From TrEMBL:
It comes from Filobacillus milosensis. Pathway: Pyrimidine metabolism; UMP biosynthesis via de novo pathway; UMP from orotate: step 2/2. The gene is pyrF. Pfam families: OMPdecase (PF00215). Signal peptide: none annotated. GO terms for molecular function: orotidine-5'-phosphate decarboxylase activity. This is Orotidine 5'-phosphate decarboxylase. Homodimer. The active site is at D59, K61, D64. SMART domains: OMPdecase (SM00934). The lineage of its organism: Bacteria, Bacillati, Bacillota, Bacilli, Bacillales. Residues 4-227 form the Orotidine 5'-phosphate decarboxylase domain.
Amino acid sequence: MRDSLYIALDFSSKDLALQFLDEHQLDRVPVKVGMQLFYREGPSLIKELKQRGHSIFLDLKLHDIPNTVYAAMKSLGKLEVDMVNVHAAGGVEMMKAACEGLRDGAEGKAPKLLAVTQLTSTDSEMLKDELLIDAPIDQVIDSYAMMSKKTGIDGVVCSVHEVKRIKERCGSDFLTLTPGIRLKGDRANDQKRVATPQLAKQQGTNYLVIGRSVTQADNPKEAYNQALKEWEDEYSQTIK
Ligand SMILES: O=c1ccn([C@@H]2O[C@H](COP(=O)(O)O)[C@@H](O)[C@H]2O)c(=O)[nH]1
């Protein structure tokens, strides 16, 4: 299970990200590289993290016309990361193009491809008032998940609160990756649909992403191990 708890490396440079991992002895933990770090450091960072033995979720959330997404995914396919993603809001043709691009670009096994349903920083009010989507948020998320599944995508990014419903509708082997994870008592910050690792486990999600609850903790390793312990329940395999 420790392979499924990703730390969000939201740092401004490779040096800071690697210093964080080294200082807190977070050797070989799964990591999520997002836009902030990848736009600055590019593929060389991915290469270095792979050499250090980290599983990598490259969280770039592609959202563009199908032709552009096809070409971008073809490039990402060559990086040999474990997972990449797109926004489901890009639609069916775009998601199909993403699947194809990734397959065409990958030299060996293609990374898993996930679709973001609604960002965990979105709530019902924002959906209605800013995005002018009148359907209830749960209905929108379920519908985006079912649409994603039809395109051949492996799973979705959603909050813990939607996992059970998505699995009922799309099947238990349709993957869910859930950010918005907070240890008990931590601030939600800009996140709206948050949950603890314990609830994530109860709801049956496949992967967790945890950022600030670990990276900004007084003792990041202790915080990571606490999340891992809640997530793994009785096994509690901590990183020594
Ligand atoms: O819906 C989404 C999709 C991606 N994220 C990313 O996950 C981390 C969460 O960081 P925290 O510090 O734990 O809030 C961050 O990198 C986001 O870009 C998300 O939060 N929600």
